Amino acid sequence: MNADHRDDHAAPPPPRLSLGKRLLWPFVQLGHAFKLTGTHLLHHIIGAALIASLMLALEGFHVLEWLDAAMLRFSAEHGQLVRARTDQGAAYRPGIIEIDQPAFEQVFDEREPLARSRLEQLITSAAARGSKVLAIDLDLAPAVYEQHQGGARALDRLLDQLARDGRQLVLILPEQSDQNANLPWIRARCAAGLHFASARIRERMGAVTRIEVKSPVLAAVAFELAHGVKEQEQLQPIPAVLSEQKEVVGLADRVCQLARRTNSEKELARWAFEPVIHGDARDAQEQNAVTAPLHPTAVAKEFLDPTRTRVKLIDGKAGVADHALRKNVVYIGSTYDVRDRYTTAEGEQASLHLHAAAHTSLGIGTADVNKYAVFAADIVIGILLGCLFGGLWTLYGRAELAIDKRMEDTDITRLHRMGTLAEFYGIRMILAVVWASPVVIGVLAVYLSHGLLEQGWWVNPGPLIAGMFLHAMSLRDEAHHPHEEVPGLNVWAQLRRTHPGIVLVQAPMAVLLFIIAVV
Fold it and tell me: How large is the average pLDDT for residues 503-519?
């Protein structure tokens, strides 16, 4: 009687699902996987705040610049999205006169230092084209064999005469010489009205992502001579705290002012290229105050290449063809040295091209997004990514748990085995999608960041994507062993009970890192 009584009250077995419904079961569960509780949402908020605070702190110490370089290299190597682009810097784009490999062989006979007579011919030809500013990325200081020759060089007489005629010439500061032999030459050229600048290009971790704005580098000095100090200030805004402290001091005369006050080329090189910013020394060291992102359009080959002109032999002299492009500002230099190449968001470029691109980028105007706006955006995007990755892990966990239960079924019919096998491969496909999701999102983020950089904004979402994916993995086991909700507990208390590490470790760390980043 007891056995019959137990049979009468036993729960009926669950209804058997057809093969079609069982194949569609994972997709039906998709909606359930993304129904987050308040505990899950708070979990993602704390995780996103921790990662955003960590990135904010590391960016303050410039630790993540290698990731910027890696993203730019990836973007450059794998091409750009097909889209029509316009030259946003057309009004500011200078001309380029370059000594490439054929010119180095045919015009300069592959000899270094470059023959001064040929350089004199080249500068004469370039000046005859009516350019207002000549930025010369060549070391024109007397070579060792010229230092003991009496009288002024013909090249120096030409440079001085062009300056007296109203041309603005910018030379790069030469390499330090023994016993400061180049210092009198620098002072003499300064007295004649020439300007000096640095040929330095900011490179971090193998890529060029930023340009100097407040230091007398070649592009900044040439841009100031061509467009004036005020226009440069308007196009390249600096933080308000520095803008209030900064005096309007030009970059063009910076090197010559210091050359008159020092007797050491080493000291001149050391102090000449400090940022021209007055005020608090600590604020002056802020990266956002002295540099700006290099605009991709400025260095894009489709816009840069048409401005390039190669040096040729014309009637036995080094010069530029008459039909070549004429520009108000011209950069003159060499591109034949394969070691003088840099990686950018638009591929590999020679240093001469990057100087011209930096000039164009100064005209377009780029600036960093406010770091606190980026911090807030990182938290919002991190929460969305956490919900996405967490939902995918939950979907996979529930599918795996369901098939484990069905594997315990004693029904071993052929149809049952085929359905179970199909579900098994379906679950493995879900797992592949889960692991592929951060990769796909990361690739899309590279192109999105490249597009944002064209609008003057630079962001690197790589650490956020990777961090939130790993963070979401901590919830994957809840599909197998869900936490029981305790009535009467609020969301914070529930999270502290189910995930004490989030409350006791991650939340305090997020606050601590944010304080470090701000202070």
Answer: 86
Q: Which residue in 441, 373, 271 sits closest to 52, CA to CA?
A: 373
Q: How far apart are CA 242 and CA 288, in angstroms?
A: 10
More confident residue, 70 or 311: 311
Q: Which residue, 305, 296, 348, 313, is CA-closest to 95? A: 305
Report helix, strand or coil for 27.
helix
The Cα-based distances of 31 to 25, 361, 391, 426, 472 in angstroms read: 11, 47, 9, 17, 17
**475 DSSP assignment:** G
The residue type found at 301 is K
Predicted local distance difference test score (pLDDT) of residue 285: 45
- What is the mean predicted confidence (pLDDT) over 206-211? 80
Sheet with 168-172: list strands edge to edge: 195-197, 168-172, 133-137, 329-334, 95-99, 308-310
Instruction: Give the bridge partners for 310, in sequence order.
Output: 98
Distance CA 392, CA 433 (A): 8
| Nearest residue to 202 via CA among 365, 372, 357, 374 | 357
> Residue 193: left if φ>0, alpha if ψ -120 to 50, beta else—which one?
left
CA distance 44 to 76: 33
So what's the pLDDT on residue 400?
77
What percentage of residues in the chain have a pLDDT greater than 70? 72
Q: What does pTM read for this prediction? A: 0.68
What's the rounded mean pLDDT across residues 158-166? 95
The pLDDT value recorded for residue 288 is: 47
Q: Give the DSSP H/E element, type plus range, for residue 314.
A: strand 312-314
- Residue pair 273/216 in contact by the 8 Å Cβ criterion: yes
Query: Which of 144-153, 167-176, 336-345 has the highest average model confidence (pLDDT)?
Result: 167-176
CA 259/CA 275 separation, integer angstroms: 17
CB 306 within 8 A of CB 299: no
Report whether 192 contacts 166 (CB < 8 A): no
C-alpha span between 84 and 398 (Å, rounded): 45
Strand pairing report for 133-137 and 168-172: parallel
Q: What is the pLDDT of residues 434-466, one digit of tens each?
A: 889 998 888 888 777 766 665 555 666 778 888
pLDDT value at residue 284 = 43
CA separation, residue 509 to residues 61, 470, 505, 519 (Å)? 18, 17, 6, 15
SS3 238: coil
Q: What is the residue whose two structure tokens read 């230099």?
A: 333
